[in-house]
Amino acid sequence: MTAGEEMHALVERLYPLCRSITGDGVRRTLEIVSEYLPLETFEVPTGTEVFDWTVPQEWNIRDAYIADASGRRVVDFRESNLHVVGYSTPVDARMTLEQLRPHLHTLPEQPSLVPYRTSYYSPSWGFCLAQEALDRLPDGEYDVRIDSTVDDGQLTYAEHVVPGQVTDEVIVSCHTCHPSLANDNLAGIAVAAFLARELKNPWYTYRFLFMPGTIGAITWLSRNAERIDKVKHGLVLACAGDSGQLTYKKSRRGDAEIDRVLQYVLRGRTHEVVEFSPYGYDERQFCSPGFNLGVGSLSRTPYARYPEYHTSGDNPAFVLPEAMEDTLAVCRDAFAVLDRNRRYLNLSPYGEPQLGKRGLYDSLGGRSDAKQAQLAMLWVLNLADGEHSLLDVAERSGLPFDSVAGAAHALHRAELIKE
Ligand SMILES: [Zn+2]
């Protein structure tokens, strides 16, 4: 199996689980992810104050349906968890269709699709169904049942840390709070898990965060506020698997190193770069003014810009193995640049140092890219003034970052430059 196929298989496994911002669906999701990647799971009790928010009660659901007079389920949670509004309070009643209508949500413009709806912070209940299905329901009485609980419990999130050579951190976050939606949630989880598995002995410490959107990120920030200055860079992954082109949304700063790295890596691919806005995924929290972290967001087609968004159309068939593999490749390339992007100081800045006597020409003997490597050394030496990073060198010289980083490595070993 290719990595793309493996990620897709993970999406398919996670798809049926009923996730929300809390509850057993999230726990089960993290358990499955932990088969791929060791996770440390955290449980934060209901009522915990996290900045301006409070960790809510925990929601769990076992079953839900609307059944007609013959007992046939006309709307059935067992078929799709999207049929129940997230955080629905329990119900057990017999109602006429007219009484039921205010609790039914459809998409009249997309009559064959079931919408995704939640009501986290105002207690209510409801069902979501295709407009076509609603139109077929005859008047009459229905048994309405939602077997759910909303009780004091926990908010669950998880981390996986890849220790680096330095304690400065890169965070990669994805949300875990959407139920049966494949692109908006699961593709990001799969790409993050596979990315984390690939990182071996990186420069930075990489912290992968699997947590519910908004309240999860706010909870994490609140619990990590003391050490947040360790976080130097970050990327929020979402909508990582549809067939659309890649989209990078810049951090609030707009010129953070992660912004430059992603734009550099995306050159040569069809892509779009968009400016920061305080809407979208958890970049909203990481880039809130009190933190203003260098965190951007990578997606394919952004939220709300594809018709399947937040509907039953966002199913595993909507997510392509090749698309997830492509997103993974961009993350891999970006972190390979970020990890080696440093500023150096030329220790022999008066005229060019003599490379030949240090074996720096010999060491290149026979390599077909020797000329490029020599040029890269000259560029690094020239721009090693403590101001320019290796990414600056790559951009200004037009040379591949790999060659520039290789030249810096050789020059550093020859003690011609220092960090
Ligand atoms: Zn969403």
Automatic annotation (TrEMBL):
Cofactor (UniProt): Zn(2+)
Alphabetical UniProt keywords: Heme, Iron, Metal-binding, Zinc
Alphabetical list of InterPro entries matching this protein: Cyt_c-like_dom, DUF2172, DUF4910, UCP015244, UCP01524_HTH, WH-like_DNA-bd_sf
Chain sites annotated for binding Zn(2+): 178, 184, 310
Keyword Iron listed: yes
Gene Ontology molecular function terms on file: electron transfer activity; heme binding; metal ion binding
Cofactor note text: Binds 1 zinc ion per subunit.
Name the record gives this protein: DUF4910 domain-containing protein
Organism: Amycolatopsis acidiphila
